[in-house]
Q: What sequence folds into this?
């Protein structure tokens, strides 16, 4: 297969399915051959990312992802994507395993926020406890010269319930809970824009988009960038050159 990219997924599987669905439905097609070429690694047995980040005695998810990345590198894809925010805890280590471009969804999303909302000096962040605990998005937001708002102590339990008990455990999106989180971030904490720092939250946005709030959805943004790059490379662009503008090293 020529001109393909690799998706390091399965974290979780329903969120990865959402990302794949986005790229399949957003690419413009007139025939079967217009769809993108990709290999999906749905490694559902990758240990929980938040558990390890918050407690290093828990299983380390790096080794599973290392095996996935090295396995895909042997197939020589044009680039790799990993539609899981919290797994970017090991981004630098994973990207160093190969010279194949490896997109960083968090940096891409934060740069989009700056470009799309240049007058907004802060952004609300809802994410897994692991992402927040290790400042994964906070550091990227500060690097871009913006401030981050996490909301009060009631926000994280609501977000955790939506991510883990509703989506991961039940495979369901509680749209009312999702909208209430956005409402509180906007009304109570002055966030004109909220960043969805977990792919399960991106799934919530896909399933329950009918709300008046502005969000930055990294999974949606990554899907658009994926399509753009894949089509450029199919048209003859050099993969490394095409990906360079999105690496933000």
A:
């Amino acid at each position: 297969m020529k001109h393909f990219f690799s998706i390091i997924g399965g974290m979780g599987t329903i969120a990865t399915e959402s990302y794949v669905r986005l790229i399949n439905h957003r690419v413009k097609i007139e025939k079967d051959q217009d769809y993108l070429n990709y290999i999906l690694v749905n490694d559902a047995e990758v240990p929980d990312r938040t558990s390890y980040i918050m407690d290093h005695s828990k299983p380390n998810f790096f080794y599973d992802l290392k095996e996935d990345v090295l396995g895909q590198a042997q197939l020589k894809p044009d680039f790799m994507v990993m539609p899981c925010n919290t797994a970017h805890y090991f981004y630098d280590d994973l990207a160093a395993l190969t010279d194949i471009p490896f997109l960083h969804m968090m940096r891409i999303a934060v740069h989009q926020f700056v470009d799309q909302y240049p007058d907004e000096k802060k952004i609300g962040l809802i994410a897994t406890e692991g992402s927040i605990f290790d400042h994964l998005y906070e550091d990227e937001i500060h690097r871009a010269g913006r401030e981050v708002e996490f909301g009060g102590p009631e926000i994280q339990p609501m977000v955790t319930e939506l991510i883990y008990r509703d989506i991961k455990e039940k495979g369901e999106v509680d749209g009312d809970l999702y909208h209430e989180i956005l409402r509180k971030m906007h009304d109570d904490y002055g966030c004109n824009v909220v960043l969805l720092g977990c792919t399960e939250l991106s799934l919530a946005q896909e399933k329950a988009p009918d709300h008046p709030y502005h969000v930055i959805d990294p999974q949606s943004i990554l899907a658009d960038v994926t399509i753009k790059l894949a089509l450029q490379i199919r048209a003859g662009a050099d993969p490394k050159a095409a990906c360079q503008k999105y690496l933000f090293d």
Notes: Residues 12 and 168 are 7 Å apart (CA to CA). DSSP finds twelve helices and seven strands in the chain.
